[in-house]
Amino acid sequence: MYKVNNKPLPLDRAFTLGDIQYPANWLRRSTSIARLALGITWETEPARADDRFYWNGDINNPKALEDREEVDEDGNPMYVKVLGEVDGEPAMVDSDERLVAKGLKSNWIAQVKATAGSMLAGTDWMVIRKAERDVAIPAATVAARAAIVAEANRLETAITACADVAALIEVISSQNWE
Q: What are 34-37's contacts with CB under 8 Å, separation 24+?
């Protein structure tokens, strides 16, 4: 990103320095010597952290790993709202179920389960056929299903054991769905 006096200069937009107005294409058409003469510098933007694990791409602001029960601003427990009645009128009221914000571990375990389920779904009919009519499942299908289940189990165990976001990223990066 081009900057002058620590202010960004967007490409393809006219800008004014001092009393001189420069056209929208000036940054693209100018030489590095001309830009430097005006005090315009190039700064590479910092790498953005993965939004799946960090809030707003900020490496210093990781999302929560663990589930947490929510509380209001006074520290009182919050509950899931359900449709009920107040003074004989329909209204949203608290249920007996605590409101829980899911952490990264829960969300990634759910994703692993969904992936495994999707991969197994195509051959589920063979398992049902085996149970109902005792028709053999091909060995290659048995092996493929066992590999999917093993990978899902490995990932769930590894995700559960993660102590920090960096460890979780490493586990997620190691997925090996064959």
A: 35/2
* CA–CA distances in Å: residue 5 to residues 15, 21, 33, 39: 13, 16, 17, 7
For residues 9 and 15, the answer to whether their CB atoms sit within 8 Å is: yes
3-state secondary structure of 108: helix
Handedness of CA 76, 80, 84, 90 (dihedral sign): positive
Burial 40-51 (b: 16+ CB within 10 A, else e): beeeeeeeebee
- CA–CA separation, 77 vs 87, rounded Å? 24
Q: What separation in angstroms does the CA of 40 have from each of 8, 24, 93, 132?
A: 9, 15, 59, 75
pTM of the model: 0.72
Q: How far is residue 6's CA from residue 41's CA, in Å, rounded to a whole number?
A: 9
Mean pLDDT per 10-residue segment, the chain (178 residues): 91 93 95 94 89 94 96 96 95 95 98 98 98 97 97 98 97 93
The span from the CA of 127 to the CA of 106, in Å, is 28
